[in-house]
Amino acid sequence: MKSKPITRRNFLKLSAAAGAVAVVSGCTVNLQQTEYLESYVRSPEDALPGEDTWYATTCRQCPAGCGILVRVSDGRARKIEGNPIHPLNRGRLCARGHAGLQVLYNPDRLRSPVRQAQRGSAQFEPLYWEEALQQVAEHLASPRPESIAFVGGYGTTPDHLYWLARHFLQALGGLPPLLFDLYNVVDGRTVLAQTSVDLFGVEALPVFDVAEADVVFSFGAHFLETWLSPVAYSRAYGWMRRGRAGKRGVLVHFEPRMSMTAANADEWVPIRPGSEGWVALALGKIIVEENLGPADLARRYAHLYEKVDLAEAAHVSDVPVEKLRTLARAFADAHHQVAIPGGTMAGHTNAPQAIAAVHALNLVMGQVGQAGGAFLAPSPPFADFAPSPVASFAQMQDLVERMAAGQIKVLFIHGSNPVLELPAAVRFAEALEQVPLVVSFSSFVDETALLADLILPDHTYLEGWGYQVVAPAMDRPVVSAQQPVVRPLYDTRATADVLLALAQQLGGEVAQALPWPNEVAFLKEKVAELRGLGVSAEGFWTAWRQRGGWWPEGEAREVPEPSAAWNQPLEGVLPDFSGGSEEALYLLPYLSTALSDGRGANQPWLQEMPDPMTTAAWNTWVEINPETAAELGVGDDDIVRVISPYGEIEAIVYLYPAIRPDTVAIPIGQGHLQYGRYAAGRGSNPVDLLAPRVEVRSGGLAWAATRVTIIPTGRRRRLARLESNIGVEYAREVGPPG
Amino acid sequence: MKRQRSLRFPVRWLLMMGLLVVAVLVASAVIRRSEAADGDPPSPITTLFFSHQKHVDAGATCVYCHPGVLNGAVAGIPSLEKCMGCHQNVTPKDEKDQPDIDRLVQAWEDQRPVQWPKVNDQPDFVRFSHQPHIRRGIACETCHGNVAQMDLAQPVYNLNMGFCLSCHRSMAVDDAEEARLVDCSICHK
């Protein structure tokens, strides 16, 4: 018999037959399987088999404090959605919020307290809680004054824990707790709050009624991505664009790089880094000169612009005078306009003056305290419910100095990762070596926890109690409630309970200062202050958990009152940069939309989420204008060294036509050495490059005030990205468009 | 002409088929193994002898272990915590049952869930809830048979559409209720 060769036809026949066999055998096996029900070991409270329960709680993935509802069925958290009645996000939620389940179910979570005999060795030995507490208590007995410190994260350390830690440290004679994390540094939280004190006499963040504005001028505010309260602002932005019949608001964005917010704008103006204030001054000057705004205000505030020279402003900002005139007229020619001082301007040494110049635009247009204008974030009318203070960079530097000098004996760290988040030049890790006992409460082994002696893991936010005074709240004050939606998965313990147990062990004054039997008793007592007349404490406690917090029914906006500071003329101050020669490139780090300041890097949903502008994921890239890249002799996917006088990192080149040729941008978020399998050893951390420069007025970190040089390494690595490289390669060959 | 030496068609065909089937089996085994990644909770115990009769004789009512029927769709099975609520104090009447109870205690100590074979089930396109039936005063035995007399729970009635409808028809107090109770959408999703 003649052998049949394997032809294409035969091969297809065979494949089809084999496939059919596989499917049939698979089906038969499944049909014969008995279905099994799996019992709980311990049944969750209120669990109704087969029925979902939705618990209202607070998102902790960024400092905004959005209300969330978590769908729980059979005792397992399955889905996170926005809480529709929460006044901040009104049912909306961002991708980071949705990914919160991957914090709860993360395979790299610590499952019990651990001890590390040698710091940095990553050799962890599990401990019983009693043992762990005993060890800490021994170090806390008879402390020297100011020798105990607590570093938390704003938004990651719940407010009740902040207050409890404060009582605890006060009783022990320690320093007040410091809440510091990179997210708030890049948002410009400290400098914005300080400017409000200077200009309006109130320590509150400014908020902007974007929803009702006709024209919005955003000075580097990434309010659709990460800035302060991106979900609330995105919702307002949607309303501004198409919520009102026959009216579509206009957005103009000033920033050296096209961010996602800039991409959504009608016009993106690529100004020189640090010149936001100069643009605002020029616009104000033109409005007053040409009498474009309300006449009385133009007269009253004309003195503000006495010292402004249009030609100089145009030169500093790299925006021609004619262009500035067109923009000023567009801004003034509307019923409701608002100018927003954003995060990128807060990273410069001239931040306070620049922010004042932007606020002045609202003032001369009469838009302070008006619909579609600028307000201050309202706070609950209870002294104990002011937002927890955010520590400035200068305060952290002070702490590092004390640590290095051997003055700190015990350091507690909760919800913050200073080793990664402070510029390398601050030398936090070195100072840590001088602290005899470092206790981390992290759920994961992050870079700071790796240098701790003990890790006493707190519950994740979906398993724990707490509350957050929302800052900035938009149209009314909000205290957002946090409650466990599932039982703790592992042998973790609430940090508040750890502090209470320590206080009991220490006895004496400390035990008296913290008399609560457990975290919930403290929390109940604390939030009971919020209940109205005629509401029982228990009734309020139930409503608090059901609704997801406390807020007034009606709008309660905070109208700013201009202070005496407005009697002085405004001044343009040039930004000051560290590092490199005049030819060096401005470094503009920005918070990754997905990973934010790096805390999202251990969640694979966020890692794989493409950056909205570059479509890149899973790595660190440096955005370079094609012109600059051509001069440097580098192209897409080339690995380059980015060098500042303070550090050096490697990153993959992404040719980005939408960035100024004198600027390079690097997303923050990667560069973890630890922090679990999804984060570790991936990309690099641009914060390592930053000069430890302090903005003098607020003590904030001037994180955009560093210049860098770029050197090719000759190596290449393809950046994972959704968009095709082909168009980009072609553009490189033919040169930039136009 | 010398014939080329090669496998004949049917042999080759069978060989390739065999290889493909082996490949599919290996792949599925690999996938199943990788599903049980490290760090997962301990795998459940599948065989634990349980007698309904002995528990009912000892005084447990149906809703003591299956309280889900009072408030929801599904009866549910008790947690190990509930089992241990009694079994940490109660000793069995029959010593032969002790090994099974020991295994229960072991499962509790290991915090390891127990798997129970599903006895009664409804297809996914049926919307069934215990709660309204219990509220109407229908006894568990009406649909599940006399489980109190069974060692191993067994399905007694074929819980199909005819079974449901016969009851829905006969129990309706008036025409309006009957019309409502036999409406397709009352049971079908």
Number of strands of chain A: 26
Q: Extract low-pLDDT stretches of chain A.
A: 27-32
Helix-strand category of chain A: alpha/beta
Supply the number of helical segments of chain A: 25
Architecture per CATH nomenclature, i.e. the level-2 architecture of the largest domain in chain A: 3-Layer(aba) Sandwich
Structural class of chain B: mainly alpha
Main sheet characteristics of chain B: none
- Summed over residues and divided by their number, the pLDDT of chain B gives a mean of 85
Adjacency order of strands in the biggest sheet of chain A: 6-5-17-16-15-7-8
The termini of chain B sit apart by: 71 Å
Distance between the termini of chain A: 71 Å
**Under the CATH scheme, which class of the largest domain in chain A?**
Alpha Beta
Strand fraction of chain A equals 15-25%
Q: What value does the Rg of chain A take, in angstroms?
A: 28 Å
Mean residue pLDDT of chain A: 92
- At the fold tier of CATH, the topology name of the largest domain in chain A is Rossmann fold
**Radius of gyration computed on alpha carbons of chain B:** 26 Å
Which range best describes the helical content of chain A: under 10%, 10-25%, 25-40%, 40-55%, 55-70% or over 70%? 25-40%
Q: What's the domain count of chain A?
A: 3
Overview of this structure, please?
The complex is a heterodimer of chains A (738) and B (189). Chain A contains 25 helices and 26 strands. Chain A is α/β, with parallel strands linked by helices and 738 residues long. Chain A folds into three domains: 114-183 and 383-525, 3-Layer(aba) Sandwich (Rossmann fold); 197-376, Dimethylsulfoxide Reductase, domain 2 (3-Layer(aba) Sandwich), CATH 3.40.228.10; 585-734, Barwin-like endoglucanases. Chain A is globular. Among the domains of chain B are: 52-109, no CATH class; 130-187, no CATH class. The longest helix of chain B has 27 residues, at 9-35. Classes of the chains: A alpha/beta (738), B mainly alpha (189). The A-B interface holds A 1, 3-4, 6, 14-15, 17-18, 21-22, 25-26, 34-43, 48-51, 107 and B 4, 6-9, 12-13, 16-17, 20-21, 24, 28, 37, 39, 44, 46, 68, 71-82, 107-108, 111-118, 121. β1 (36-38) of chain A pairs antiparallel with β1 of chain B.
